[in-house]
Structures are given as C-alpha cells and as structure tokens.
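thread from #wetlab-drylab

HS: before we spend reagent money on co-crystallization trials with FE2/S2 (inorganic) cluster, can we at least see a predicted complex? here's what I'd submit
DV: go for it
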Amino acid sequence: MDTAPPPESAPPALCRLDEIPDGGATAVDAVLADGAESLILLRHGEQVHAYLNICPHAGRRLDYAPGKFLLKNGTLICAVHGATFNQADGLCIAGPCRGEHLRAVEVRVRHGAVRLPDDA
Ligand code: FES
C-alpha cells in the first residue's frame, strides 16, 4: 500500500475516498482538458469509476439533486428520463439511449483520495 504523502506536484484531490459511501456515488467538479466538468464518482471498495455527469440521451446531468444518484443492482439510472447504465462500464442497457455509453474519465485512488492522473 502506498503510504507516502503525495508529492507537491500531485494534482489536487477530487474528494476523499471516504466521502463516497461504499457502493454509492457522488458528484464532484473537475477541471479536465476540455474545461470544468461535473463528474460522477462511483465507489466499490477501494475502486472508483468516474464518468462525465452528462447523459448521452439529452445532455442533462444524471443526478436528481446535486451529488444524489439513483443506483440499483449495479446500475445508475438517469433521473431525467430513466436511461439505465452499467456502473462498471457506463453502457446504457435500457431506456432512450440504449447502446450508448457515459464518457469514462480516468481517476486513481491514492493516499485515501480520488485524483485525476498526474498527467491529466
Ligand atoms: S437525459 Fe438522461 S435519460 Fe434523458
């Protein structure tokens, strides 16, 4: 396990891992190459999947309130029109954009925090 403090050059944390309930999700703001975006962070133990908080159906946020998502049986359900996405790969398996994907964003868990990669 990596216990050394993050180097001075490490990108700022998006959030602490323990701010995301295990099996749950939250939304954070991040500055990506394309500009500022809201990200969905989905936690499974020590692993975090991240996606842009933009539904491929109509381009709306997926949360029903800021950082609050509908999660059921390994899926994430868009609060706007009910598109249902696999949490593990972002594939829409039911609803109006079936077959499309959420856009994945690479994140890493280091020192108890969720971060963008160093080279982001
Ligand atoms: S905007 Fe998400 S299902 Fe329509």
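DV: The mean pLDDT is 92.
HS: ok that's useful, forwarding to the group
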